[in-house]
Amino acid sequence: MIPALLSLALVAGAPAPLTPEALRDHYAGVRSLTADVVQVKQGKYWARPLESRIRLQYTPGRVVWETLAPIPSTVVVGDAGMTVTGSDGRPRDAGPVSSDPRFAAVMRFIRALFAVDLPAIERDFALSYAPGLLVATPRPGSNVQLFREIRLQFDAALELTTVDLETATERTHLSFSRVERAR
């Protein structure tokens, strides 16, 4: 009896098979998604890691990334591009970066990531799957060479739990909690 219960417990906690079809089925028709996010950034030139508390809001046409602490700010990525509002409530000009094709590729990736739009992600990244894990590496010649690798971890119910973004000099770890989706 005990071995059977242990086997059942191990199977119940094992990550679900992660396939493009499983992700599409799980995230299809999502009209909105909200989550609390803890972001920890570490870098080659940083004195110490920086931890931020964030509230994420996603709808198919818009991603709102509201940093609550340590310094409040809001980034909105939408059809018209990106806007940044500082802690003083005043918008910041993205300047020439907004017309950079690499910036456009990163914005496309962010929107595709939260939509779990795998074909859009695959324009710039090669995807590989493992139990509970999706790894995206830039395709040669793509405009997202800024990233070395992006790792998305999913729980047994296929909910996104963490995202790790790695560049040549920085690593960002995002932990998601209180995720709420509406269909």
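the 2nd protein, sequnce then structure:
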Amino acid sequence: MRKSLFYVANSVIVITVIVVVLIFLHIFRLPFIYFNLLGANNSLTHWIGWAGTLYIAFATPAYFLVKHKLVSHLKNAFNVHVIGNLVAVLLVSIHFAHQVTRSVSNYPELGTGVVLYATMIFLVSSGFLQSFSLMPKYAKQLRFIHPAFALTFYTVIVMHIIHGI
């Protein structure tokens, strides 16, 4: 099962890279449409970024709880954790790519967004290396680094939200 999960995970990563490259090349763009949701008015790409971020923010502690409290469901939870978070990264990547490819006259301030995106990429990379034992020599370090990046992610997302207010 781990082998098929590895191939599905790699497929999601490849799709993410292709979509981001297409956005950077202005071949694929989501329309600039504003949606009002719960009193907040944001663009479609912003809501897509929110969806991905919220998934990561809630699914990660849910996986932690299953891992430590409901061990009988661990295998399914692990698969959902890996694939779900990679799809969430795809959504956040769509948002980020649209932000950094905006016109100069409408370019956003990227400070916390860049840090947040980098943290998310490091979080995913460390999780990928740990999950599939790609660097067994560094397994102990990865068991420390992956949760550390998760905590950093939560800290930076709070700062990113505050910065956007």
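The beta strands are 34-37, 40-43. Residues 2-164 form one domain.
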